[in-house]
Write a structure and sequence with these properties.
alpha/beta; D-Maltodextrin-Binding Protein, domain 2; 2 domains; seven-stranded mixed β-sheet; four-stranded mixed β-sheet; 17 helices; 15 strands
């Protein structure tokens, strides 16, 4: 859509000076670009944090975008470019709970026009009728990573514009492990050697905590082809095929119990200390995503990224694959502008390359991926580690999984519960929650 057609859709919008100021509480949001000092045909401003108790859109803007503090600086820069090109006023507001705040605001008629979030939000958003389909041409869609396009669909309809693909990988301290371990047993042996020599205190830094973490624990289940949901004939996840206590998943549960006994895994490691354990050389390995790298780089630890190892009696451990995307509200104040921003402006190589700065996740657009991979070798390493990974389930029933499965993982690792019995219980808990609509 041309600048003129957007302007016509917003007849009466006046010109504003271009500015962008920090918002939110995080350090990322505070690093937003400063005012350029130039005049333009439109403006974009990061207008501060969304009030979690009473979330409301910026009433003065033509296009309002809600995102978290990490993505806000980059999104604000892109919004500024779009505003200048199209003569509109765009407001970027930060939220600590984008999805939760959006759901509340949508019911109150205060929702933004666009939100930035993960693809696994999609099922709930579609079920609530709060997001609109987006129209990507076949030519545009062909330019994206096929997995990203698959993750952007629900019941065959596209509901989001992807900008990044993310997954966990194995990260090793190269002072303790020169080469990537091919098997989990090799990983344990190498890591234990570092512990025995008093160089490290932990073999592996994996976020788990006392209440568990299903996302970080999933690769130990997938190594035996276990998991959470089976699929329909068309490949979509099926809430009626819960496999938390399947024979394959139980093999993973028993492995977790064994690793807990050997102190390879610990519920004393959670999101508050996992990154620092590895960054400070206290853990030989970590299973994490690219979001941890800034902490490692700041500490100066030497590391390398590789695919996860194989498990004895099973195969390769694979992480969940996640896709970050932009959703358009079904009640967007200016639907034409919102759709144009999402489907035309954000699908360019230039925009997707800028969005790479949000967590250094591999871009979803193939041209942008190829461009950044030439200068950043880690991009290809993360992508390779995600080969064979399945997209995280985006069906509403997934909301019923996280807490019960996470707690089951923690209870098994800590030795509090026997693996088979605990996962049988988790299966029943999740089935009951799905039935209850939770």
């Amino acid at each position: 859509m041309t600048k003129r057609s957007v302007a016509v859709a917003l007849a009466g919008v006046v010109a504003f000076s271009l500015s962008a100021c920090g918002g939110g509480d995080s350090s990322s949001s505070k690093s937003s670009s400063k005012s350029s000092g130039s005049s333009a045909s439109g403006s974009a401003a990061a207008t501060g944090a969304v009030n979690a108790k009473d979330p409301k859109r910026d009433a003065s803007a033509d296009l309002v975008i809600w995102t978290d503090g990490t993505a806000a600086p980059t999104v604000a820069k892109l919004a500024s470019e779009f505003a200048k090109q199209n003569g509109v006023k765009v407001s970027v507001q930060t939220a600590t709970d984008v999805r939760g705040n959006y759901n509340t605001a949508f019911k109150a008629g205060q929702a933004p026009d666009i939100i930035v979030g993960a693809h696994d939000w999609m099922g709930e958003l579609v079920a609530n009728g709060s997001v609109a389909p987006v129209q990507l041409s076949a030519q545009t869609a062909a330019g994206f990573n096929p997995v990203a396009i698959t993750a952007s669909k629900y019941n065959g309809q596209t509901y989001g514009v992807p900008y990044a693909v993310e997954n966990m990988a194995l990260v090793r301290n190269t002072a303790y492990a020169k080469d990537a371990p091919k098997t989990l047993d090799e990983l344990i042996a190498t890591g234990q050697k570092a512990v025995d020599s008093k160089k490290a205190t932990n073999v592996l830094a994996l976020e788990m905590g006392k209440v568990g973490d299903a996302y970080h624990g999933y690769p130990f289940l997938s190594g035996f082809k276990g998991g959470i949901f089976g699929t329909k004939d068309n490949g979509d996840y099926d809430a009626n095929k819960l496999m938390v206590n399947s024979p394959e998943t139980l093999k993973g549960a028993n492995l977790l119990a064994e690793l807990g006994k050997k102190k390879v895994l610990s519920t004393n490691i959670d999101k508050t200390n996992a990154d620092n354990l590895f960054a400070n050389g206290k853990a030989a390995y970590a299973i994490t995503g690219p979001w941890s790298l800034p902490t490692y780089d700041k500490a100066g630890v030497k590391y390398a990224v590789s695919a996860m190892p194989t498990v004895e009696g099973g195969g390769k451990m694979t992480p969940f694959l996640g896709v970050q995307m932009f959703y358009v509200s079904s009640k967007a104040k200016n639907a034409t502008v919102a759709q144009t921003f999402a489907t035309s402006f954000l699908t360019t190589e230039a925009a997707q390359k800028q969005l790479f700065e949000v967590g250094k996740r591999p871009p979803a657009l193939k041209a942008a991926y190829d461009a950044v991979a030439k200068t950043d070798p880690q991009v290809a390493q993360w992508a390779a580690a995600g080969e064979g990974a399945k997209p995280m389930p985006n069906i509403p029933a997934m909301n019923a999984v996280w807490q019960p499965l996470g707690q089951a993982l923690a209870d098994v690792i800590s030795g509090k519960s026997a693996p088979d019995a605990r996962f049988n219980k988790a299966q029943s808990e999740i089935q009951a929650a799905i039935k209850a609509g939770n």
